[in-house]
Amino acid sequence: MRRARLCNQDAICRFRALRCGELRAFEAGRLSGDRRDQTGLAGTSDLTTTTLGFRTSRSFALSDTLGLTARGLLGWSHAFGDVTPAAKLAFAGGQPFTVQGLPVARDTGIVEAGFDVGIGKSTTLGLTYTGQFSNRASDNAVKAVLTVRF
């Protein structure tokens, strides 16, 4: 068994991840009111994803009290299993029908870049961009974080 090593700062490190998830839907009772006696039927969905990539970070001292840490990530994720979530429903006395959600992309490129600025001894301001790209969709996010330790 190989022991996992932590990535040293100022280095490019490779990483891998495995995630498994199972969603079980048990038969739901009849709903009343506006849903007109709708019934949910039992079913399961299984989704497994693997992620491979590289990450890096580097710290710089801008002054005696001001430090900057830049970081980046480049990766690839692959999904196996039920990539399109689905639920089987039926109206009272009617035939069952399937409702499908948005599919999860089978192959996705992942990009992340960000920095943290240490303002004093107990305050950090950070900004991060995260992007996921596939052949049919993309997901982009920018996150700002202010951390004060006391």
From TrEMBL:
Record GO cellular component, one term: outer membrane
Protein name listed in UniProt: Autotransporter domain-containing protein
Annotated SUPFAM superfamilies: Autotransporter (SSF103515)
Source species: Phyllobacterium brassicacearum
Domain of life assignment: Bacteria
Domain Autotransporter, chain residue ranges per copy: 43-130
Coiled coil: none
